[in-house]
Amino acid sequence: MDHNLTKRLQSKSVKNAIINNIAHDFNLTPILAEAYFSQIKNYFLEHANLELSSGQLHYLAVDDREPAGKPVTLCKKRSVRLTVHDVDKDLQVYKDKGLAGLRQHRLLRISKEAIEQGALLSYEDIAFILTTSVITIKRDMAYLRRSGLTIPSRGWRHDMGRGSTHKTQILDLYLSGYQFSEIEKRTHHSETAVKRYIQDFSKIILLYSKGFTVDQIRITTGFTNRLIGEYKKLYEKHHQQGNKRLKALFDDSKKNNQE
Predict the structure, then answer these.
(1) pLDDT greater than 50 at residue 89
(2) Reported pTM
Protein backbone atom coordinates (compact mmCIF):
# COMPACT_ATOMS: atom_id res chain seq x y z
CA MET A 1 0.00 0.00 0.00
CA ASP A 2 1.17 3.53 -0.75
CA HIS A 3 2.99 5.05 2.26
CA ASN A 4 1.16 8.39 2.00
CA LEU A 5 -2.18 6.62 1.78
CA THR A 6 -1.36 4.65 4.94
CA LYS A 7 -0.49 7.85 6.81
CA ARG A 8 -3.71 9.51 5.68
CA LEU A 9 -5.79 6.55 6.86
CA GLN A 10 -3.98 6.47 10.22
CA SER A 11 -4.65 10.17 10.70
CA LYS A 12 -8.38 9.38 10.56
CA SER A 13 -8.22 7.05 13.60
CA VAL A 14 -9.96 8.05 16.86
CA LYS A 15 -6.60 8.08 18.66
CA ASN A 16 -5.07 10.54 16.21
CA ALA A 17 -8.19 12.69 16.19
CA ILE A 18 -7.95 13.03 19.99
CA ILE A 19 -4.20 13.76 19.84
CA ASN A 20 -4.82 16.47 17.23
CA ASN A 21 -7.53 18.01 19.40
CA ILE A 22 -5.24 18.03 22.45
CA ALA A 23 -2.46 19.65 20.41
CA HIS A 24 -4.84 22.31 19.10
CA ASP A 25 -6.71 23.02 22.35
CA PHE A 26 -3.60 23.27 24.55
CA ASN A 27 -1.16 24.60 21.95
CA LEU A 28 1.14 21.55 22.22
CA THR A 29 3.50 19.88 19.78
CA PRO A 30 2.27 16.54 18.36
CA ILE A 31 4.85 14.67 20.47
CA LEU A 32 3.68 16.28 23.73
CA ALA A 33 0.03 15.85 22.76
CA GLU A 34 0.61 12.11 22.20
CA ALA A 35 2.40 11.86 25.58
CA TYR A 36 -0.60 13.53 27.24
CA PHE A 37 -2.94 11.15 25.44
CA SER A 38 -0.98 8.09 26.58
CA GLN A 39 -0.96 9.25 30.20
CA ILE A 40 -4.67 10.04 30.20
CA LYS A 41 -5.34 6.65 28.62
CA ASN A 42 -3.42 4.97 31.46
CA TYR A 43 -5.43 6.93 34.04
CA PHE A 44 -8.64 5.84 32.35
CA LEU A 45 -7.61 2.17 32.28
CA GLU A 46 -6.61 2.34 35.96
CA HIS A 47 -9.74 4.06 37.23
CA ALA A 48 -12.54 3.43 34.77
CA ASN A 49 -11.97 -0.07 33.46
CA LEU A 50 -13.19 -2.15 36.41
CA GLU A 51 -15.53 -5.01 35.66
CA LEU A 52 -18.36 -5.06 38.17
CA SER A 53 -20.69 -7.88 39.15
CA SER A 54 -24.20 -7.51 40.51
CA GLY A 55 -24.14 -5.79 43.91
CA GLN A 56 -20.69 -4.24 43.40
CA LEU A 57 -19.65 -0.63 43.03
CA HIS A 58 -16.56 1.23 41.83
CA TYR A 59 -15.10 3.49 44.54
CA LEU A 60 -12.05 5.76 44.71
CA ALA A 61 -10.15 5.19 47.98
CA VAL A 62 -6.85 6.42 49.40
CA ASP A 63 -3.77 4.31 48.63
CA ASP A 64 -2.69 2.38 51.73
CA ARG A 65 0.86 3.72 51.41
CA GLU A 66 -0.25 7.29 52.07
CA PRO A 67 0.76 8.50 55.55
CA ALA A 68 -1.77 9.38 58.24
CA GLY A 69 -2.47 13.09 58.55
CA LYS A 70 -1.81 13.90 54.88
CA PRO A 71 -4.71 15.87 53.36
CA VAL A 72 -6.97 13.51 51.42
CA THR A 73 -6.99 15.88 48.43
CA LEU A 74 -3.21 15.38 48.08
CA CYS A 75 -3.24 11.59 48.55
CA LYS A 76 -2.85 9.10 45.74
CA LYS A 77 -6.13 7.29 45.07
CA ARG A 78 -6.89 3.75 43.97
CA SER A 79 -9.97 2.52 42.17
CA VAL A 80 -11.42 -0.42 44.06
CA ARG A 81 -14.25 -2.87 43.47
CA LEU A 82 -16.47 -3.23 46.55
CA THR A 83 -19.30 -5.70 47.15
CA VAL A 84 -22.10 -3.83 48.87
CA HIS A 85 -24.73 -6.50 48.39
CA ASP A 86 -24.32 -10.27 48.12
CA VAL A 87 -27.82 -11.78 48.10
CA ASP A 88 -26.98 -15.31 49.24
CA LYS A 89 -24.66 -14.37 52.12
CA ASP A 90 -26.33 -11.13 53.21
CA LEU A 91 -29.82 -12.57 53.56
CA GLN A 92 -28.56 -15.32 55.84
CA VAL A 93 -26.63 -12.83 58.00
CA TYR A 94 -29.73 -10.63 58.21
CA LYS A 95 -31.84 -13.59 59.36
CA ASP A 96 -29.26 -14.64 61.97
CA LYS A 97 -28.01 -11.27 63.29
CA GLY A 98 -30.49 -8.62 62.24
CA LEU A 99 -29.85 -5.22 60.65
CA ALA A 100 -26.88 -4.24 62.86
CA GLY A 101 -25.21 -7.60 62.22
CA LEU A 102 -25.73 -7.20 58.47
CA ARG A 103 -24.17 -3.72 58.53
CA GLN A 104 -21.13 -5.01 60.42
CA HIS A 105 -20.84 -7.94 58.03
CA ARG A 106 -20.79 -5.55 55.06
CA LEU A 107 -18.35 -3.23 56.84
CA LEU A 108 -15.90 -6.10 57.25
CA ARG A 109 -16.33 -7.23 53.67
CA ILE A 110 -15.74 -3.89 51.95
CA SER A 111 -12.83 -3.05 54.29
CA LYS A 112 -11.18 -6.36 53.41
CA GLU A 113 -11.80 -5.91 49.68
CA ALA A 114 -10.25 -2.42 49.77
CA ILE A 115 -7.17 -3.73 51.62
CA GLU A 116 -6.70 -6.54 49.09
CA GLN A 117 -6.66 -3.91 46.33
CA GLY A 118 -4.09 -1.71 48.10
CA ALA A 119 -6.41 0.92 49.57
CA LEU A 120 -7.85 1.93 52.94
CA LEU A 121 -11.38 3.16 53.56
CA SER A 122 -12.02 5.95 56.05
CA TYR A 123 -14.92 6.01 58.50
CA GLU A 124 -16.54 8.57 56.19
CA ASP A 125 -16.08 6.29 53.17
CA ILE A 126 -17.71 3.34 54.92
CA ALA A 127 -20.57 5.46 56.27
CA PHE A 128 -21.27 6.89 52.81
CA ILE A 129 -21.15 3.48 51.09
CA LEU A 130 -23.42 1.85 53.69
CA THR A 131 -25.69 4.91 53.95
CA THR A 132 -25.32 5.37 57.69
CA SER A 133 -23.59 7.82 60.06
CA VAL A 134 -19.91 8.07 60.93
CA ILE A 135 -20.83 7.68 64.60
CA THR A 136 -22.55 4.36 63.84
CA ILE A 137 -19.51 3.11 61.90
CA LYS A 138 -17.16 4.07 64.75
CA ARG A 139 -19.40 2.23 67.18
CA ASP A 140 -19.45 -0.85 64.94
CA MET A 141 -15.65 -0.71 64.57
CA ALA A 142 -15.18 -0.52 68.33
CA TYR A 143 -17.53 -3.48 68.85
CA LEU A 144 -15.75 -5.61 66.25
CA ARG A 145 -12.32 -4.79 67.67
CA ARG A 146 -13.48 -5.74 71.16
CA SER A 147 -14.43 -9.05 69.57
CA GLY A 148 -10.78 -9.49 68.57
CA LEU A 149 -10.92 -8.36 64.93
CA THR A 150 -8.44 -5.91 63.39
CA ILE A 151 -10.15 -3.69 60.82
CA PRO A 152 -7.79 -1.07 59.39
CA SER A 153 -9.15 2.26 58.24
CA ARG A 154 -7.63 5.70 57.78
CA GLY A 155 -9.32 6.76 60.99
CA TRP A 156 -8.05 3.84 63.05
CA ARG A 157 -6.29 5.14 66.15
CA HIS A 158 -3.23 2.90 65.61
CA ASP A 159 -2.56 4.56 62.29
CA MET A 160 -3.49 8.11 63.27
CA GLY A 161 -2.05 8.04 66.79
CA ARG A 162 1.18 6.85 68.34
CA GLY A 163 0.62 3.11 68.16
CA SER A 164 2.13 0.82 65.55
CA THR A 165 0.44 0.49 62.17
CA HIS A 166 -1.78 -2.46 61.32
CA LYS A 167 0.87 -3.67 58.86
CA THR A 168 3.49 -3.95 61.60
CA GLN A 169 1.05 -5.75 63.90
CA ILE A 170 0.17 -8.25 61.18
CA LEU A 171 3.82 -8.87 60.33
CA ASP A 172 4.53 -9.39 64.02
CA LEU A 173 1.86 -12.11 64.07
CA TYR A 174 3.41 -13.75 61.00
CA LEU A 175 6.93 -13.69 62.43
CA SER A 176 5.57 -15.01 65.74
CA GLY A 177 4.52 -18.20 63.97
CA TYR A 178 0.85 -17.63 63.13
CA GLN A 179 -0.44 -19.27 59.95
CA PHE A 180 -2.12 -17.23 57.22
CA SER A 181 -5.53 -18.69 58.13
CA GLU A 182 -5.07 -17.64 61.77
CA ILE A 183 -3.96 -14.14 60.79
CA GLU A 184 -6.98 -13.76 58.50
CA LYS A 185 -9.31 -14.83 61.29
CA ARG A 186 -7.76 -12.39 63.79
CA THR A 187 -7.21 -9.40 61.48
CA HIS A 188 -9.63 -9.91 58.58
CA HIS A 189 -6.70 -9.67 56.14
CA SER A 190 -6.51 -12.20 53.32
CA GLU A 191 -3.42 -14.24 52.59
CA THR A 192 -2.88 -12.06 49.51
CA ALA A 193 -2.78 -8.88 51.59
CA VAL A 194 -0.46 -10.41 54.21
CA LYS A 195 1.95 -11.63 51.53
CA ARG A 196 2.02 -8.12 50.06
CA TYR A 197 3.02 -6.74 53.47
CA ILE A 198 5.73 -9.40 53.76
CA GLN A 199 7.08 -8.46 50.35
CA ASP A 200 7.21 -4.76 51.27
CA PHE A 201 8.85 -5.58 54.61
CA SER A 202 11.51 -7.62 52.81
CA LYS A 203 12.30 -4.75 50.41
CA ILE A 204 12.79 -2.29 53.25
CA ILE A 205 14.94 -4.58 55.41
CA LEU A 206 17.13 -5.66 52.49
CA LEU A 207 17.94 -2.00 51.81
CA TYR A 208 18.46 -1.40 55.54
CA SER A 209 20.87 -4.34 55.73
CA LYS A 210 22.85 -2.82 52.85
CA GLY A 211 23.39 0.38 54.81
CA PHE A 212 20.70 2.58 53.24
CA THR A 213 19.50 5.45 55.45
CA VAL A 214 15.81 5.91 56.26
CA ASP A 215 15.56 8.79 53.78
CA GLN A 216 17.24 6.73 51.06
CA ILE A 217 14.85 3.84 51.69
CA ARG A 218 11.89 6.24 51.58
CA ILE A 219 13.00 7.68 48.24
CA THR A 220 13.66 4.20 46.81
CA THR A 221 10.47 2.49 47.99
CA GLY A 222 7.96 5.30 48.50
CA PHE A 223 7.14 4.20 52.06
CA THR A 224 6.91 6.67 54.92
CA ASN A 225 9.71 7.26 57.44
CA ARG A 226 7.37 6.04 60.16
CA LEU A 227 6.66 2.68 58.53
CA ILE A 228 10.35 2.17 57.72
CA GLY A 229 11.24 2.89 61.36
CA GLU A 230 8.63 0.41 62.60
CA TYR A 231 9.87 -2.30 60.24
CA LYS A 232 13.45 -1.74 61.40
CA LYS A 233 12.37 -2.16 65.05
CA LEU A 234 10.35 -5.26 64.18
CA TYR A 235 13.32 -6.73 62.33
CA GLU A 236 15.71 -6.07 65.23
CA LYS A 237 13.28 -7.60 67.71
CA HIS A 238 12.91 -10.88 65.82
CA HIS A 239 16.52 -10.93 64.61
CA GLN A 240 17.76 -10.87 68.21
CA GLN A 241 15.50 -13.82 68.99
CA GLY A 242 16.96 -15.84 66.11
CA ASN A 243 13.57 -16.00 64.42
CA LYS A 244 13.45 -18.89 61.92
CA ARG A 245 10.77 -17.33 59.75
CA LEU A 246 12.76 -14.13 59.49
CA LYS A 247 15.89 -16.05 58.50
CA ALA A 248 13.99 -18.08 55.89
CA LEU A 249 12.37 -14.92 54.57
CA PHE A 250 15.65 -13.16 53.91
CA ASP A 251 17.43 -16.26 52.66
CA ASP A 252 14.69 -16.46 49.98
CA SER A 253 14.89 -12.73 49.25
CA LYS A 254 18.67 -12.80 48.78
CA LYS A 255 18.38 -15.89 46.57
CA ASN A 256 15.79 -14.15 44.35
CA ASN A 257 17.98 -11.05 44.06
CA GLN A 258 20.91 -13.16 42.90
CA GLU A 259 18.92 -14.90 40.17
Answers:
(1) yes
(2) 0.62
